Structures are given as C-alpha cells and as structure tokens.
Amino acid sequence: MTTTTTVKKKLAPxxxxxxxxxxxxxxxxIKNYGKWKYHxxxxxxxxxxxxxxxxxxxxxRAGSPRTMSVDTVRKICDxxxxxxxxxxxxxxxxxxxxxxxxxxxxxxxxKDVTTILGFPIGGTGHSVSNILHxxxxxxxxxxxxxAAGAVKALMDDLYEEFTNERFPQRVKxxxxxxxxxxxxxxxxxINLQHHHPPTINHKNMQICELPxxxxxxxxxxxxxxxxxxxxxxxxxxEKCMYCGACHGQCPSMEIRDPKTDTLSIxxxxxxxxxxxxxxxxxxATYGLPNNPPRWPEVGDAVRKILKTYKEGAKxxxxxxxxxxxxxxxxxxxxxxFKFTKYHIDTYRFARTTFNTSAQVRL
Length: 362
Ligand code: SF4
Ligand code: SF4
Known about the structure:
The chain is of the alpha+beta class. The chain is built from twelve helices and 14 strands. Helix content is 29%, strand content 20%.
C-alpha cells in the first residue's frame, strides 16, 4: 500500500490526449455554461452573447494569418491580457476571438488588433470566414503546392468579403496541397491534383518500409518486385488513382511533378446539419495551373463561383444547397465551367478501382 502511494506521487501529471477545455474558458462562460439566453450581431465581427442571469460577453473575431511567429502570438496574448482577463480562443478556421465583458473595451481592443497586429475584424455570419489551408511544408512531406501562399493571395482578393456580410449564407473556403486533402469539407475547396503514378527510385528504396508502403495504397496498386537482386516495389498503373498516399510513406515513390500537377476546385461541402445534412464536395473545375506566387487562375475561378452564388442563391442557402436547388446543369451554365466526363463517377469500375485493398475501409 505504502509502495503504491509512493509510486503514484512520483508520476508526472497525465499530459496526453485533449485537456479538459472547461479549465480554459472565460469565467463568464463557465458561470453560464448551458445557460445562455440569446446572441445578437452587433456588427460584422462582433457578437453579443447574453446569459439568462443578464451576464453579457462580447466576442470580437479577427482573421489571423494562420501561420504565426511566437512574437505575433505574444502580441495577441498581450491584447487579451489588457482587455479580456487573459482569455481568447482560436476557432477551427484560425480566427482569433477576443472575449470582452466591458462594452467600453470593444473599440480600444479593435484599434489595438488592427494597428498592432494588422488583423481585420469580421468573419462572422454571412461572410467569407478565414480561409483555411492545410499544414503544408511546415509539417508535412507531401505538399505539391504552397497552400499557404494560395490562401494568402485569395485572402488579399477577398478581404472585403471577410469584413462584410454580403452573401446569402456563410462561405467557407479551404486549400489543400495534395490530393489526400487533410483540409476537410468546405463550400469551396482548392485541391492539388497529380496526373500520373509515382515514379519509383529503385536505388533508394528502403527495404524496411516496403510492407508499410504496400499496405497504404487504398486500391492495392503497389506490389513487391525484385530489381537486380534487390527488393523493391512497382505500381500497377491501371489501378493507380494518383492519390500520392504512398509518397507519404516512402520518399522513393515521388509523385509530385511541377510540370504536370494542377489545381482543381470542388464545391458544396459542409459539415453542419442545419437545413440539410452534411455533404461532400463535388468537382467544379480542374486543370488550373499551379501558378505561384499569386495563382491568378484559381482566384478568377473562386470569384466566379462567389459572384454567381451571391446573385442566384436564396437567403440562408449554402453553396451546395443553392446548386442542389438549381441543378448541376444550371451551375455549369452560370459559372461557365466546362462539364466533362471526369465530373461523373458512375462507380462502373468500382470493383477494380475502389477498396480492392486487403485493408478495406468501408
Ligand atoms: S493537404 Fe496533403 S500535403 Fe497538404 S498538409 Fe495535408 S496531407 Fe500534407
Ligand atoms: S497510394 Fe495512391 S498514388 Fe500510390 S500507387 Fe496507390 S493509388 Fe497510386
């Protein structure tokens, strides 16, 4: 008994898994947890939340550049210390939300956020919320484009749509730097596309990783072979769908190609259950040049979708709901995007291209 107690005392506190979020909430939020009466929009970027007992909390939302230096984060924290009793939160789309109890602090806080940080205020309601990009070159070994750069160029373009609420409903945009798309669903998503199977460098193939690489392919297109007496891998080209998952496991299977990689735009994804259920994105246009540093062709296509959506949607319709109502045929007519056979998947070849791996994921 004594021994167990001694051992327990020596153990460090558990620090794995998600921490209990309630410990980090603003005191007013903890006090009124589950007891909020209503909220109202004061103006774009400012939401007033009122509790049943009359407590008020103002949320001031600012767009962050997502990838930030420690210095910038320190400045954000200083502002939160000055006006928010040290409390702020980041939304899933990397907006910074400052939580203010005293209405008089709102304008000075906004002045500090816009002058010290240079962040815009907005992103609430029927605006284009902060555009997401995947981690890209910061953390990942797969990127075929600079998602952060494409988002920066788009955000410069759509700045006014963040600070105003001029759409029928909220618009979420994301950019992914490979076909795996760890960025998730969005109303408009820009994804990189590869156009050929990986090129295998047999000389550098690391034997210890071969089973892992073989297992990762979702369509079982990778198989072991022997090259000049050495174990290696080959790709069955008819099966390969150019997803690039194998490249993540093995740098000797290079799929990125600056000459052939292009960008595609997908529309109509959403995760929310409001009005209609969650929906997957569908292909709108593809083959756009991967054209840094400003990706003008991508910007043109996104603006075209936003313009036609703004003109044609009924109030509260998300992009996917608008398209479902008018029909995909009409969507291609109003946007002018070319409709091709690649927009249709009839699952006709599903037996040979879909889930044929031993690691079936249904
Ligand atoms: S989208 Fe692909 S390349 Fe970009 S961070 Fe996610 S997994 Fe990596
Ligand atoms: S993991 Fe993807 S890119 Fe690699 S061989 Fe399989 S289908 Fe092709």
